[in-house]
Design brief:
three-stranded antiparallel beta sheet, 11 helices, 279 residues, alpha+beta
Length: 279
């Protein structure tokens, strides 16, 4: 059993869960951590766009959008009937029309039509490596339960997901909290507590989200990553009384968290700032 400063995994799990509940009850909530979206390491045209244009692209459910001619140069064609999405491009004019090297003045913006990768067909594109240079902790836990972990381009509808039938985790962000959340789902499934749900409205799905998100918050606490506020808002989306839901599912949460900490590598255990130490 992995220990930190002589504290067992179960004791550390209890400390972490108590810490998150205390923060919720006391109202001492840290600032919201902004979601970091994966940026492709390859030189796609959109990697040079402004942040606003990239956000607009992601909101349309794609990680790659280009102009009609740009897709053609990449060996792909825009499907007939596809609708363009629009980004903003600056419009400049010469301050002195007579001068050869006159400074340019910004006079406004114009809409530039681009098309999503999903609206094209043709030659496959070279795959980019979205894996972070330094992987987040607890990778060996996923290996221990036979779950594959991969990083994919950012999508509009999720930042991460656990796929039970494939025993796989897909991540669209380098944010540790998202990784912890999906790892909790995988461990919950491994322990046999996860129940299948046909829709997000079902109680089984909601309970699974409470377990995964609270476990993620507890792990963030152990690794000194502020996250309690995000976790509270996320759980309240599924259960209005978050504290009541956590208390009802506490045994399940504790089992998942304890399993993760029991299989935490010794090197990582020695570097973790426990809640007791932080206090």
């Amino acid at each position: 059993m992995a220990k930190a400063n002589g504290i067992s995994a179960r004791e550390r799990a209890e400390q972490a869960t108590r810490h998150v509940l205390t923060v919720w009850e006391g109202g001492n909530l840290p600032a919201i951590i902004a979601q970091s979206v994966l940026a492709a390491k390859s030189a796609t045209p959109c990697s040079k766009w402004s942040l606003g244009n990239r956000i607009a692209m992601i909101a349309q459910g794609t990680h790659d959008a280009r102009g009609f001619q740009q897709w053609k140069e990449a060996g792909r064609n825009v499907r007939k009937g596809s609708k363009a999405i629009y980004i903003l491009g600056p419009c400049f004019v010469k301050r002195d029309k007579e001068a050869v090297n006159s400074e340019l003045a910004l006079i406004g913006f114009r809409g530039i039509p681009v098309f999503r990768f999903q609206d094209t067909e043709g030659q496959p594109l070279e795959q980019s490596d979205f894996t972070p240079e330094t992987l987040p902790p607890l990778q060996t836990v996923a290996q221990r339960i036979g779950v594959r972990v991969s990083y994919t381009p950012a999508l509009a509808d999720f930042m991460g997901r656990y796929i039970p039938h494939d025993k796989a985790i897909e991540l669209c962000t380098h944010q540790p909290a998202t990784w912890f959340h999906e790892l909790a789902h995988a461990v919950d499934d491994f322990l046999g507590s996860m129940k299948p749900a046909k829709s997000k409205a079902q109680a089984a799905y909601k309970d699974g989200e409470v377990v995964a998100e609270f476990t993620a918050a507890a792990l963030c606490s152990l690794y000194a990553i502020p996250y309690e506020h995000n976790a509270l808002r996320y759980i309240e989306h599924y259960r209005k009384d978050a504290a009541k839901a956590v208390n009802r599912l506490f045994a399940r949460i504790e089992a998942v968290l304890t399993f993760i900490l029991e299989h935490e590598p010794a090197a990582e255990t020695s570097n973790v700032e426990t809640v007791a130490k932080a206090a």
